[in-house]
């Protein structure tokens, strides 16, 4: 029912866009023979598909959005990264309340990491906006290709073994209990290697701000494999963390003119509707195949960004 | 939505505020975008001219369009394109409100470390939102 209602809103929204187009100039004054309204419309369809794939592939929307939209749409990377941050932010804001209430995401675990990541993401955003587009594209391409490697190699651990919580996490009382529905058990967890994780979150924050990516791909391995948080807690806390990390970077982009509603709004709505549909498809999809499709897309988009930045594939 | 019995008070309160803020932001985002694309209010930048600007770097766009960075968009709020910035700012502002809301809870619990974390986080987010940090050629 909810999907239908959202579908109607969406359909209405874009019918209105078409109606408006009838009154607007049909061609762009700049150079292109393609009418201006085609781009937001394609953007909406593309982000809808990305939203479906992101859920099925277990990645955040932002990580697919920036390299794909940046590589194949006529928008400057500044606007793409600004939109990417709001896409990742909206997804995190939408998921956050449920994850917090169910106890999967943990505020005490998130807060110290978020502090480091949000401060770093401001620096990252400022670096990203100051750099020329080709340099950003080269760095983005390398980062995306690195993400592909992480996705292929990183293992996940459902319940990592943490023999002893470290001194810092004990002092900060970072631990918790959540109810595992699948087994009906209460899972107690604690973490270790907190100082190392805080150090890594400096780099994660900078990359999130610089490239406008949601940083779930980096958050989860740090929380799960390094700190030893259970996988569910890691994924949920990572998603919630994005709502804080991306907020600071998103403001830098907004305040510096890198946010255009005509790019941001269709992207947010597209990816959110896609996520809703993706969740429905998840039950019947074959995760392994979808995962390889997502990895393939990232590989292609990463290469495209790298070659675009190097001036080889314009 | 069911709340797990192990979840702490500040986490529940944070979640509730986040939930409301996100819903208000998203509803307004759709409404203001409808106003924008239907032309109920006129935009500052004609929609058909957008392709000229979306190819530029952000600071070049601001210069070419005669716009100013930071919160200067508030002066243009009656223009449909800048009206969209209201829900965008709400989405960007919810987290700050959530942090401010849980401050008294940490204080009541005498959880001074997390109270200080919350204050510093508020400071960082408000600094980012303030518009003080400018980049590029403007």
TrEMBL record, chain A:
<keyword id="KW-0813">Transport</keyword>
<feature type="transmembrane region" description="Helical">
    <location>
        <begin position="258"/>
        <end position="282"/>
    </location>
</feature>
<keyword id="KW-0812">Transmembrane</keyword>
<feature type="transmembrane region" description="Helical">
    <location>
        <begin position="83"/>
        <end position="100"/>
    </location>
</feature>
<protein>
    <recommendedName>
        <fullName>Probable membrane transporter protein</fullName>
    </recommendedName>
</protein>
<dbReference type="InterPro" id="IPR052017">
    <property type="entry name" value="TSUP"/>
</dbReference>
<feature type="transmembrane region" description="Helical">
    <location>
        <begin position="34"/>
        <end position="56"/>
    </location>
</feature>
<dbReference type="InterPro" id="IPR002781">
    <property type="entry name" value="TM_pro_TauE-like"/>
</dbReference>
<comment type="similarity">
    <text>Belongs to the 4-toluene sulfonate uptake permease (TSUP) (TC 2.A.102) family.</text>
</comment>
<feature type="signal peptide">
    <location>
        <begin position="1"/>
        <end position="24"/>
    </location>
</feature>
<feature type="transmembrane region" description="Helical">
    <location>
        <begin position="135"/>
        <end position="154"/>
    </location>
</feature>
<dbReference type="Pfam" id="PF01925">
    <property type="entry name" value="TauE"/>
</dbReference>
<keyword id="KW-0472">Membrane</keyword>
<feature type="transmembrane region" description="Helical">
    <location>
        <begin position="197"/>
        <end position="218"/>
    </location>
</feature>
<keyword id="KW-1133">Transmembrane helix</keyword>
<keyword id="KW-1003">Cell membrane</keyword>
<feature type="transmembrane region" description="Helical">
    <location>
        <begin position="107"/>
        <end position="129"/>
    </location>
</feature>
<feature type="transmembrane region" description="Helical">
    <location>
        <begin position="61"/>
        <end position="77"/>
    </location>
</feature>
<dbReference type="GO" id="GO:0005886">
    <property type="term" value="C:plasma membrane"/>
</dbReference>
<feature type="transmembrane region" description="Helical">
    <location>
        <begin position="289"/>
        <end position="307"/>
    </location>
</feature>
<keyword id="KW-0732">Signal</keyword>
UniProtKB/TrEMBL annotation, chain B:
<keyword id="KW-0812">Transmembrane</keyword>
<protein>
    <recommendedName>
        <fullName>DUF1634 domain-containing protein</fullName>
    </recommendedName>
</protein>
<feature type="transmembrane region" description="Helical">
    <location>
        <begin position="82"/>
        <end position="100"/>
    </location>
</feature>
<feature type="transmembrane region" description="Helical">
    <location>
        <begin position="20"/>
        <end position="37"/>
    </location>
</feature>
<feature type="transmembrane region" description="Helical">
    <location>
        <begin position="112"/>
        <end position="135"/>
    </location>
</feature>
<keyword id="KW-1133">Transmembrane helix</keyword>
<keyword id="KW-0472">Membrane</keyword>
């Amino acid at each position: 029912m909810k999907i239908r209602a959202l579908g109607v809103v969406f359909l209405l929204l874009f019918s209105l866009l078409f109606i408006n187009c009838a009154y607007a100039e049909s061609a762009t004054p700049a150079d292109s023979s393609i009418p201006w309204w085609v781009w937001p419309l394609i953007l909406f369809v593309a982000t809808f598909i990305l939203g479906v794939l992101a859920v099925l592939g277990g990645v955040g929307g932002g990580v697919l959005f920036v390299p794909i939209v940046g590589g194949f749409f006529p928008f400057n990377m500044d606007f793409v990264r600004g939109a990417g941050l709001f896409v990742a932010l909206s997804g995190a804001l939408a998921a956050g309340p449920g994850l917090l209430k169910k106890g999967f995401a943990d505020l005490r675990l998130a807060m110290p990491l978020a502090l480091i990541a949000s401060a770093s993401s401001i620096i990252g955003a400022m670096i990203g906006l100051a750099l020329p587009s080709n340099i950003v594209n080269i760095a983005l391409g390398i980062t995306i290709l690195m993400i592909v490697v992480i996705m292929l190699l990183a293992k996940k651990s459902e319940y990592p073994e943490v023999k002893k919580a470290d001194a810092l996490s004990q002092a900060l009382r970072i631990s918790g209990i959540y109810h595992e529905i699948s087994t009906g058990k209460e899972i107690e967890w604690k973490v270790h290697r907190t100082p190392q994780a805080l150090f890594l979150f400096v780099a994660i924050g900078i990359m999130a701000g610089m490239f406008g990516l949601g940083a779930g791909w980096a958050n989860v391995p740090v929380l799960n494999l390094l700190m030893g948080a259970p996988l569910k807690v890691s994924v949920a806390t990572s998603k919630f963390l994005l709502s804080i990390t991306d907020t600071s970077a998103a403001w830098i982009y907004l305040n510096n003119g890198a946010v255009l509603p005509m790019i941001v709004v269709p992207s947010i709505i597209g990816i959110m509707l896609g996520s809703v549909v993706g969740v429905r498809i998840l039950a019947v999809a074959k995760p392994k195949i979808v995962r390889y499709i997502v990895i393939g897309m990232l590989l292609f988009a990463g290469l495209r960004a790298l070659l675009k930045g190097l001036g080889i594939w314009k | 939505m069911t709340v797990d019995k192990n979840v702490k008070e500040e986490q529940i309160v944070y979640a509730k505020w986040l939930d409301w803020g996100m819903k208000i932001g998203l509803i307004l985002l759709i409404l203001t975008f409808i106003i924008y694309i239907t032309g109920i209010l006129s935009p500052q930048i004609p929609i058909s001219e957008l392709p000229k600007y979306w190819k530029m770097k952000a600071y070049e766009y601001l210069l070419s369009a005669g716009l100013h960075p930071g919160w200067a968009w508030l002066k243009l709020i009656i223009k449909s394109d800048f009206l969209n910035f209201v829900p965008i700012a709400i989405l960007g502002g919810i987290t700050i409100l959530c942090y401010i809301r849980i401050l008294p809870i940490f204080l009541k619990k005498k959880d001074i470390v997390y109270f200080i974390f919350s204050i510093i986080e508020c400071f960082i987010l408000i600094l980012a939102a303030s518009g003080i940090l400018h980049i590029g050629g403007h």
